[in-house]
UniProtKB/TrEMBL annotation:
Residues 1-29 are annotated as: Disordered. It comes from Jimgerdemannia flammicorona. InterPro entries: Nse2(Mms21). This is SP-RING-type domain-containing protein. Pathway: Protein modification; protein sumoylation. GO terms for biological process: double-strand break repair via homologous recombination; protein sumoylation. The keyword Heme does not apply. GO terms for molecular function: SUMO ligase activity. GO terms for cellular component: nucleus; Smc5-Smc6 complex. It is found in: Nucleus. Keywords: Nucleus, Transferase, Ubl conjugation pathway.
């Protein structure tokens, strides 16, 4: 076998690049490319759709709490206290979620109104997140009584469950000792019995009648 001849040619010299201006040099890059960016007032109307989405979810939460209250009353009637307690926990969770969404909705409405008023907001996301976090921290730092015992849906839940076995008795206060001077927690008593037949009402509703007074000629 013939030996393989080695090449005597030297490798080509490296290609030298002449130094040129750095396209990413600090002198040529703006420190803040969005310095003059802001959202125009005409764009604020687009935030209305997001606000409307919050309302739809809040309506679903309200319906869920109403249905949970009805189910808890049925379970209380058949002596299922553990199941009623689980539903009460769910009602509290609903209330927390409801407050979270109300905080986010309020932050969105605030940004919308500020933009409509001509305020130049550069970072919409950062402004939104800061406002939501601040309000969320305030809510979460409240005592349990302030979160739930003054909530209309929670009071309604406790009231209706109580009346299943105590139809003629006033429900005890949810919190005998108020958290502070500004928070007064009471009870309400709404009878679900028909005053004539003394049977439980089915899907009871309340009605507000408005009287109009005029001058008779």
């Amino acid at each position: 076998m013939a030996p393989i001849a080695s090449s005597s040619r030297a490798p080509p010299p490296p290609i030298e690049h002449s130094p040129g201006p750095d396209p990413l040099s600090e002198a040529e890059v703006d420190e803040d490319p969005f310095e003059n960016f802001h959202i125009e007032p005409a764009c604020a109307v687009k935030l209305n759709n997001l606000v409307g989405d919050f309302d739809k979810v809040l309506d679903s939460i309200t319906h869920g709490m109403q249905r949970g209250t009805e189910t808890a009353c049925e379970l209380e009637e058949v002596q299922e206290p553990e199941q009623v307690e689980k539903i009460e926990f769910s009602i509290r969770t609903y209330i927390d979620l409801e407050n979270r969404l109300k905080i986010e909705k309020a932050a969105m409405e605030n940004l919308r109104d500020r933009i409509k008023g001509g305020e130049k907001i550069k970072n919409l996301v950062a402004e939104y997140q800061t406002a939501v976090q601040r309000a969320t921290d305030e809510y979460e730092n409240q005592p349990e009584a302030a979160k739930y015992f003054g909530n209309e849906a929670f009071v309604d839940f406790k009231q209706k469950v109580w009346e299943v076995h105590h139809p003629d008795q006033e429900m005890p206060p949810l919190n005998p000792r108020p958290v502070d001077d500004d928070l007064v927690i009471g009870t309400q008593r709404v009878s679900l019995k028909c005053p004539i037949t003394q049977t439980l009402l089915v899907n009871p509703v309340t009605r507000c009648v408005r009287w109009t007074y005029g001058v008779v000629p």
